[in-house]
Write a structure and sequence with these properties.
Elements lengths: L3 E5 L8 H15 L3 E4 L31 H11 L4 E8 L5 H14 L4 E6 L4 H7 L7 H16 L4 E3 L7 E4 L11 E3 L4 H10 L2 E2 L6 H17 L7 E6 L2 E2 L13 E2 L1 H9 L8 E4 L8 H17 L3
Length: 310
């Protein structure tokens, strides 16, 4: 079975969103990409009060200055495409009111003919939580649980009822539109508690490509946990890849994974082929100058990966 390939949509500040998002989305679908993806970064603290991911000494990338809102970006892509799925990898769920998020995702899914994939994470930025979170950072796991529960309720049959939430109270109501089909919820699952949440309440896993050996070990761990907790439904998998693209090959010994030209990126990707995961999201927008270069590199990555048997 051929591994699916997805492409990250242009959200960063070097792009003309109104023109470039539909343009890249149409091109990606024509190239053969199976899905189109967005991520969420709500703000860029200046001066930086917290390092990237909370890792000491790691600065925020300059690309985070002005990232387009994910669901608006996906809506632009939905209107320009017919086949490709539309995913978030990831949307920081606790920055959103659960009921409004559920309704927005349902509306986008029905408008797109059932193509939405909801990749949700809890985030890590204290500044983003201070600006827009609905509960304190320390409660992010509980908020994630409620978001999933509210989404399932809102997307389900009427009357919708959800009366015991910390944030959400729905006594009995008709809520529409309903999604065209059950929207898959994917979670990163990068802590023991998050892995249990994923196995018990989500449809799939959206990890990062942090090394083929590490990813394979995490996948075995997740499968073992699913068996232990008597899960029978298969877990859908979408792996996020953030290449450091350059037109010329990177020749130094300090080359990082997925750093360099298309051939080097695909060579690194092939190391993951035997793990047996469903899909890889290639987000090339970071190191391409404009939409034209993004489309050209995306086409080359796709054709090179397929020619290599990925």
């Amino acid at each position: 079975m051929t591994t699916r390939l997805g492409l990250g949509l242009p959200q960063n500040r070097q792009y003309d969103l109104g023109k470039d998002v539909p343009d890249v989305a149409r091109a990606a679908e024509a190239i053969g990409y199976d899905s189109l993806w967005v991520y969420e970064r709500a703000l860029f603290p200046e001066p930086q009060t917290q390092p990237l991911y909370g890792i000491p000494g790691l600065p925020w990338p300059d690309a985070y200055r002005g990232v387009a809102e994910p669901l608006v970006t996906l809506t632009l892509a939905a209107a320009a495409t017919e086949r490709a799925e539309l995913g978030t990898a990831v949307l920081v769920a606790p920055l959103h009111i659960p009921f409004r998020l559920a309704k927005s995702l349902a509306t986008l899914d029905t408008a797109s003919g059932g193509r939405v994939i909801a990749g949700l994470g809890t985030g890590w930025s204290l500044d983003e939580y201070a600006a827009s979170a609905i509960r304190p950072f320390e409660e992010r796991g509980k908020v994630m649980d409620e978001v999933i529960e509210v989404c399932r309720a809102v997307w389900g049959p009427d009357p919708v009822m959800y009366e015991d939430g910390r944030i959400t109270k729905i006594a009995s109501a008709v809520v529409g539109p309903k999604p065209a089909r059950p929207i898959p919820i994917l979670l990163p699952g990068n802590t023991p508690r998050a892995m249990r949440r994923l196995v018990d309440h989500a449809d799939g896993w959206v990890p990062g490509a942090d090394g083929a050996g590490q990813l394979a070990a995490q996948w075995r761990q997740l499968q073992d946990l699913a068996a232990e907790r008597n899960r029978t439904e298969p877990l859908r998998t979408v792996v996020r890849v953030n290449p450091i693209y350059s037109a010329k090959p990177h020749g130094g010994q300090d080359r990082q994974p997925f750093q360099g030209n298309v051939e080097q990126i695909v060579t690194d990707l092939m190391e993951y082929a035997e793990i047996g995961l469903d899909e890889y999201l290639i987000d090339l927008q970071w190191f391409t100058r404009d939409a034209q270069e993004l489309k050209a590199v995306a086409a080359e990555v796709y054709s090179t990966a397929r020619a290599a048997g990925f």
